[in-house]
Amino acid sequence: MLNQSFGGISPQAVTPQINYVDVVQQLEQVLNTDVQRLQLLIQQGVITQQQGQYLMNNLADTQRKLNMCKQSIPFEHDAIQPSGEQVPVSQNPLELFSQENPGFFDKDGRVDVLDYLKNLDVDKDEISKIAKLVEKLEASAIDGYLKKSAHEKSLNDENSAAKSKLTSYAQNATTDSNNNRIFTREEIGKMSGDEFAKNEKLIMEQVRQGFIK
Is the pLDDT of residue 67 over 60? Predict the structure, then answer.
């Protein structure tokens, strides 16, 4: 039966020989690497514990599916039906998602998500869930940036107001100090023309009141 040909073409010529055990093992290695990367992102604070747990659940679900595949090896992959007709090839879930959401992965940063999904065996619905999570993370990041900017602006405004008050207080303190100061004839004699002009009103008032003798 294995050597039976269809139209002169043997099944071996139609269906490439694939070691599905190796494929599953490679997928498991990718999953383990993804788990480690996700744990690192959580530790570094790039994503929150809640967000990390959501992604961990997705990875765990993928691992569960891989385990089911391992139990069913060897797989049945007949490329040709008994009637001689080719089995329709199912469309890639990423392609289906891209058709319904054109340009979703074209934005900056989303290319990494696309590369990540290419290494996983996920269906279109799971891709849609991950896409919604990506949008929520982006919206949260933007909201956090806007709040941080508003807070920094508020601090800058408060600092500017405090500096203005300190400057005004210092200027008033200097003026009050000069107003309470009693000049001597020696000090007046050593003044430049600009200094005397600046203090002339106060000096003349002190002379009138008899403070300068």
Answer: yes
